[in-house]
Amino acid sequence: MIWICFFVFLAACFAAGSTGGLFPPGRWYDQLAKPSWTPPNWLFPVAWTTLYICIAAAGARVAVQPDNALAMAFWALQIALNTLWTPVFFGLHKLRLGLVVLVALWLSVAVAMVMLWSVDRIAGMLFLPYLAWVTVAGALNLSVLRLNPDADADADAEAAPEV
Amino acid sequence: MIWICFFVFLAACFAAGSTGGLFPPGRWYDQLAKPSWTPPNWLFPVAWTTLYICIAAAGARVAVQPDNALAMAFWALQIALNTLWTPVFFGLHKLRLGLVVLVALWLSVAVAMVMLWSVDRIAGMLFLPYLAWVTVAGALNLSVLRLNPDADADADAEAAPEV
């Protein structure tokens, strides 16, 4: 049962992660001014693959245990927000809205971690690297927004790409 | 507890549903040939708002009950796929890949319905309109793909919008 759950949660992570291939950084992102500590592009898929395995494992461990209501609700919330961020940032080039989504994602991951921990400590710990990475991603999104105030699609609605 | 869970699941639905506003149909969709039974544009947000309330209620009812592992895993999977479809179809204009996502969504909703039903019959029934609507959406996506074979962004990679 726990393995079936693991693979179903992993499939949800795959749906979220597929946005990385569908909405790649591309020229727009390459040309943006970025802080000196920006991780190299190749690190993102490596980090996310590792994180998604941890995220799915945490979900599966808690799914098979009682009193998992809030942990499961926040697990679902974080994966929806995780799926949403890439299309908003890399698809629509909405830096400010991307930051809003990332802050919501950070909060949902933080609460999920606490709720998972209350059911199963290992599951809670499996969310720690995720929270750390989303913190870095949030700082990067904020920094890119500050360094490129005119790159936000919402900053100049006329210049926004038509979708 | 069940109310908190309801609002967390509803927040996940809101993240999924926000793609409808972020990636609106627009001129591209308006110009596509569509089958005679295509629902009018205004019906989609009305239907989805109703469905999301049912989907969140089903999730909350089952989250607070024991033996909910697979139901919760498939609830998470369907919301990730639900969030993914709109950016793929309306954002990237990938009709064929959109259909693949919709088939995966249909399967995840169908299995989620069975798993929810096994824990709580009302929760299972709350997923029935969702499955019906995704069936319509899938038939529409297939029909639009057949009627507009050249509209698929993947059909002519050179003409694909840069994102």
UniProtKB/TrEMBL annotation, chains A, B:
<keyword id="KW-1133">Transmembrane helix</keyword>
<keyword id="KW-0472">Membrane</keyword>
<comment type="similarity">
    <text>Belongs to the TspO/BZRP family.</text>
</comment>
<feature type="transmembrane region" description="Helical">
    <location>
        <begin position="71"/>
        <end position="92"/>
    </location>
</feature>
<dbReference type="GO" id="GO:0033013">
    <property type="term" value="P:tetrapyrrole metabolic process"/>
</dbReference>
<dbReference type="GO" id="GO:0016020">
    <property type="term" value="C:membrane"/>
</dbReference>
<dbReference type="InterPro" id="IPR004307">
    <property type="entry name" value="TspO_MBR"/>
</dbReference>
<dbReference type="Pfam" id="PF03073">
    <property type="entry name" value="TspO_MBR"/>
</dbReference>
<keyword id="KW-0812">Transmembrane</keyword>
<feature type="transmembrane region" description="Helical">
    <location>
        <begin position="126"/>
        <end position="145"/>
    </location>
</feature>
<protein>
    <submittedName>
        <fullName>CrtK</fullName>
    </submittedName>
</protein>
<feature type="transmembrane region" description="Helical">
    <location>
        <begin position="44"/>
        <end position="64"/>
    </location>
</feature>
<feature type="transmembrane region" description="Helical">
    <location>
        <begin position="98"/>
        <end position="119"/>
    </location>
</feature>
<dbReference type="InterPro" id="IPR038330">
    <property type="entry name" value="TspO/MBR-related_sf"/>
</dbReference>
